[in-house]
Amino acid sequence: MLLLGNEAIARGALEAGVAFATCYPGTPSSEIPENFLKISQETDLYFEYSTNEKVALEVGAGAAISGLRTMVTMKHVGLNVAADPLMTLAYTGIKGGMVIINADDPFCFSSQNEQDNRFYARLSSLPMLEPTNVQEMKDMTIAAFDLSEELELPVIIRTTTRLNHIRGDVVLGKLKPVKTKDTFQKKPFHWVCVPAVSRNLHKLLLERYDKSAKKSDNLPYNQIIGDGKWGIVANGVSFNYVRDAVSDLGISDKVSILKLGFSWPMPKDLCVNFMKQVEKVLVVEELEPVNENDLKAIAQEEGITIPIKGKGIAGLSRLFEYDPGMVRKAVAEYFGVDYKAPEMVDTSDTPELPGRPPNLCAGCPHRATYYCVKQVYGPDAIYPTDIGCYTLGLLPPISMADFVICMGSSVSSGCGFSKATDQKVVSFIGDSTFFHSGITGLVNAVHNNHKFTMVILDNGTTAMTGHQIHPGVDAERMGFDLTRISIEDVVRGLGVKDVHVVRPFKLKKTIEAVKASMEYDGMSVIISKELCPLFAKATGQFKKSKPFYINHNKCKNHRDCLNLLACPAMYLDGEQVEIDKNSCIGCSVCAQVCPENAILPLKE
Known about the structure:
The chain has 604 residues and is α/β, with parallel strands linked by helices. The chain folds into 4 domains: 2-216, Rossmann fold, CATH 3.40.50.970; 222-335, Rossmann fold (3-Layer(aba) Sandwich), CATH 3.40.50.920; 365-474 and 481-538, Rossmann fold; 548-601, Alpha-Beta Plaits (2-Layer Sandwich). 39% of the residues lie in helices and 16% in strands. Strands 3-2-4-5-7-6-12 form a 7-stranded mixed sheet, sandwiched between helices. Helix 15 (409-420) runs parallel beside helix 16 (431-447). The two termini are 47 Å apart.
């Protein structure tokens, strides 16, 4: 079958007999749990969207320690959130197989950083597998479950965006029987990590690590390809670029490639044998020089004195993704191969494509909320924001994002800004992000008597990663029997006295609520409730309205509609603002902003 990389991982988990799956959605891993969600509706697979990645790993730990084959999926920054339980779960180990999918994001396609999570394997002493193609993504998933049960350790599979989202042909295997129930065996002096127990467990972890290190030398995912004197080491998607480069340059007979698929623990004996058969080594790896440094350390211990280089050769750096041309150039430069890059296609006679920056969708309720807050608080207030669609409030003309570092940080950093400055502070956070990690920041704000406004942008779904369920979603409309948690009840339950629930498309009333929050001497919360229009359409909740048009007999061309809102349904036709009736959803926000009342519903 032709499968997406993430679909291949999901298929591999099914073939391995997965019974229990948890996650917090995050691109580039989101399609894995989306498949599990659908499958769970037709089978006895248990799947849940957990509140955050830490919770997902802890829920999965309970299932894996009870003997069920369990998968937990997240993106790279999600593993930061899950790192607390991860480090100690490595001590306790597990009973059933547990596979943790970690999707790194070189080039920050959809993330706030591009950290290299290979360090987490080294930090936790847990095995890490790195597939290089779609077939391996399925096969390695099966192998990871088997390895996990044998070692009684969680196993991490590290992917990257390029692998998660490529498609390739995959040969399917048989589905194993699934064990959906087992019995937890009480062993308090193993499972309860008080200091006296953990000292013994650390020793046990290192013994298991040694066992996994021996397996690393013998599993087929680590292999030497070729017998030439020029050595290249590669992992993940970089391995494919290396294979292409060697073929394109016509040097296959001169090259040996060390492929690192079971990348931690490093296959030390294999690395030694490889370095002894080559004259020099080029290490091709995206982001940090992890393998490069490990190989240099092994070479020093073994008295091997060949050149080992990686970062700094041609364009190989610690930044961003690699590509085939970059790797081809680096291989040619390092080994002294005559090489002339292919000439670029001449596009001088082709007009430039218009810029298409990311933008909030036409009719997005966040745009209305931002407008109302800006009208009251102005440009001088501090606007900490968070991770979600609404992060696009950074861009002009909205320009309502001053600080963001991670999920939930808008609330906690708002506490700091409000104490450290005399400026007004308005923090923005989404509904899913509020449940993920905003609640604890709000507890802190109430307890420590901070004074600022928190705006919860409740669009009824986890919009940015694909409309997944969270605790505040009306899941019944999506066909799931899940308890819905009221954001307003949570906020009031945490002790917030000044709470305003608004419908952002009603600008006048929303502005009144924002003014009241600004005047309140304490912690104030505004809950801005309006469904994401894309989600509303997908779930049959969209209330169709007439699109709007501009009556040019009334329009004075102030362009407030365009300059204050920048809705993508608007465009300039010469000097006149127009509205694309096919994009407009009829939210009426622009009509309320127009000083001439020149924006009206289309009567056709």
